[in-house]
Design brief:
The chain is mainly β and 250 residues long. Helix content is 0%, strand content 31%. The strands form four sheets. Strands 3-6-9-12-15-18-21-24-27-30-32-33 form a twelve-stranded mixed β-sheet, with no helix packed on it. A ten-stranded parallel β-sheet has the order 2-5-8-11-14-17-20-23-26-29, with no helix packed on it. The chain has an eight-stranded parallel β-sheet with strand order 1-4-7-10-13-16-19-22, with no helix packed on it. Pfam families: GMPPB_C, Hexapep. Belongs to the transferase hexapeptide repeat family.
Length: 250
């Protein structure tokens, strides 16, 4: 059996390392980390205790896996468990930060500089673009595409096969932070399967974007969007239908 190419300049405290793993110089892998087969860990990666890395994962320079949320200056008390689960065939871009209590499904790509907060769950074959923020307790399905510089609010749900363009903003607090944190009303948008959100759109708290609906570029969505509707404008209004809605008038 060939030796794993682990640099003498790396700090590796775990023994749970699979076959054909490469760990480059100046990477730090703490104890109680499990690394699958054929994993590539580039320089200056930090992986904290409790992380599980699946087979064929590549983690690019400067990524941080297992960041603990601190309560300093936060209006919301952080809640998390000290584990991270990265599925097989994932790619983690340079300087991405994945907090504790996060899971990634198989074949998912996390872009350069992206941030994935605690209690978030991301499905398989999903792309989280460069410098995207996925806030706490955000649930993202399979085959989702989130383009660069988008901000996803906490307590948000995105179902399978959704496309979200670049620079999209979402929110979960109609009081804009003036009333402190009271978890129950702070709900982000719910984007149903197959929906598409245009570049620069803004989705307000707790709105539902229906199945297969389209939100035009720059729209401000203040109310629920029915299944199959195309909405545009500020505030967003229905302009046409991609299919007849179920119930009600067209």
């Amino acid at each position: 059996m060939a030796m794993n190419p682990i640099s003498a300049w790396a700090v590796v405290e775990t023994e749970a390392i699979g076959e054909a793993v490469a760990i480059a110089e100046f990477a730090v892998v703490r104890s109680d980390v499990t690394i699958g087969n054929r994993v590539v860990i580039h320089p200056h990666v930090v992986i904290e205790s409790g992380a599980r890395i699946g087979n064929n994962v590549e983690i690019f320079p400067g990524a941080y896996i297992g960041k603990a949320t601190t309560g300093v200056a936060l209006s919301r008390p952080p809640r998390f468990e000290a584990w991270v689960d990265i599925g097989a065939d994932c790619s983690i871009g340079p300087h991405a930060v994945i907090f504790y209590d996060v899971s990634l499904g198989a074949g998912t790509l996390i872009g350069d500089g992206a941030s994935i907060r605690e209690q978030s769950r991301i499905g398989s074959k999903t792309v989280i673009g460069r410098y995207v923020t996925v806030n706490y307790n955000t649930q993202i399905g399979d085959r989702v595409r989130v383009q660069d510089h988008t901000w996803l609010a906490g307590n948000m749900t995105i179902e399978d096969d959704v496309f979200i363009s670049g620079c999209v903003g979402t929110s979960n607090d109609n009081a804009i932070g003036r009333n402190g944190y009271d978890g129950s009303p702070m709900l982000g948008p719910n984007i149903a399967r197959g929906a598409a959100i245009g570049v620069g759109a803004n989705l307000l708290p707790n709105v539902r974007i229906g199945v297969g609906a389209v939100v035009g570029a720059g729209a401000v969505v203040t109310k629920d969007v029915p299944d199959g509707a195309v909405v545009m404008g500020v505030p967003a209004e229905i302009r046409r239908w991609l299919k007849a809605p179920t119930g009600g008038d067209q």
